[in-house]
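Thread: quick sanity check before group meeting

JM: Hey all, I'm pulling together slides for Thursday and realized we never actually wrote out the predicted structure for the chain we discussed last week. Dropping the sequence here so it's in one place. If anyone has concerns about the input, flag it before I start.
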Amino acid sequence: MALQIEQLKKLHPQARVLDVGCSNGVFVWLAGKTGWKAEGIDISAFAVQWGIKQFGVNLRLSRLDQVEETETYDLLSFWNTLEHMRDPFAALRHAHRRLRPGGHLLISTPDQGSLVNLVVNFIHRLTFGASHPLTRRLYHPDHIYFFNRQTLTRLLERAGLEVVSIEGYDEAPEDTETGGLLRTAVAVVQVLARCCGREHQMLLLARRR
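JM (edit): ok, ran it. Output follows.
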């Protein structure tokens, strides 16, 4: 997150930032440390209260569609948030309306076209579904939608947003809730994914036209 903030500072040296689905406010805290005016919204009262207590940041209990349309921002961020939303297109339209002209939207979400997805789906078909415990690690039950680079780009364009850049990244193997041989396999797949540009997570930057 800190690296992305430093890159975005070149586009918006002074910015008003809203983190949608902010959880405990880590991104809001990091953004505020750089001099941005940052705030966050989330639907979890526990996360919001914990973040305010822990970091002393500006968080509130709210959905994006409940934010006043007169409130506009230079940057909105969706860190692993869009895939949880029941209507991601509506969320992107709300984001468009709350971005100032030339403002940016940053989205981090799993890439359905990643190498690890392709490998796990192949194993699932090969074993006639017997590898369900493996697929369950990849397809979280609270993820409602799954995107790849093409589908997310088209969705953003429909919402009136122009894609500026897409890059991939992976979590560290020790953060993937795996162990033993499975963690080793994850590490190997991640190395191969970097070589072919098919990491598990995608970080997409879009701009309001």
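AS: nice. The helical segments are 2-9, 26-33, 45-55, 88-98, 115-126, 132-138, 149-158, 180-196. The chain has one domain: 2-111+141-170+200-208.
JM: adding both to the slides.
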